Amino acid sequence: MSQVETVLDAFARIRSSGRPRVVRDPSGDGSVSARQASILALLDPRDPAMVGELAEHEGVTASTMSLTLKRMERDGFVRRDRDPADRRVTNVRLTDAGLRIRDARRLLAPERVAGMLQLLSPAERGDAVRGLRLLATAADRLERRTTRELAAWTGASDETPSQDEERG
């Protein structure tokens, strides 16, 4: 297995084990399942999404999505309205409670990551954290490089990169 394949495999396993099973409203007013949280991540309080679009994105039928959204509306996380231009279409928007949960959602649950780390020896924990820091630093460098290249390509920025960015 190549190094790239090893990183991709490890990330997928960490993501699967560390993903939150429930996302709680920071105000203490309820929670949603991981599946419902993924739906909230697709929504906006102002710009509506259509039920069919959400269903397609989540890989379920429109009727399954409608049932899920009905529960989420009952719990106060989304608002469903008929489209004024086409009454057959239902538009879905986030409520304030849904927005709080969407913003609180994390890729990994801190308590699950802590559990993974506790299963390692102190030396292994140190190695794991150092390795992840190195990958995160490389990701930051790649992002800065990509941003600079995009800015140069589009002519969006006349700034020259700082010495720190050049070294990165």
Write out key terms for the chains shown.
globular, 8 helices, Arc Repressor Mutant, subunit A, three-stranded antiparallel β-sheet, 60% helix, mainly alpha, 168 residues, two-stranded antiparallel ribbon
β-strand percent reads 5-15%
Question: Structural class of the secondary elements?
Answer: mainly alpha
Order of strands, widest sheet: 3-5-4
Text of the CATH class of the largest domain: Mainly Alpha
Rg over CA atoms: 21 Å
N-C termini distance = 28 Å
Supply the number of helical segments: 8
Number of domains: 2
CATH topology of the largest domain: Arc Repressor Mutant, subunit A
Shape: globular
The stretches of 5 or more residues where confidence is low (pLDDT under 50) are 158-168
* Proper CATH architecture of the largest domain: Orthogonal Bundle
How many extended strands?
5
Q: What is the mean predicted local confidence, pLDDT?
A: 86
Classified in CATH, the superfamily of the largest domain is Winged helix-like DNA-binding domain superfamily/Winged helix DNA-binding domain
Helical fraction = 55-70%
Main sheet, how many strands, which sense, barrel? 3 strands, antiparallel
* Order of secondary-structure elements: HEEHEHHEEHHHH
Short description:
The protein is mostly helical. It has helices at 3-18, 34-40, 51-58, 62-74, 96-104, 110-118, 122-154, 163-167, and strands at 22-24, 31-33, 49-50, 78-82, 90-94. A hairpin with a 7-residue loop joins strand 4 and strand 5.
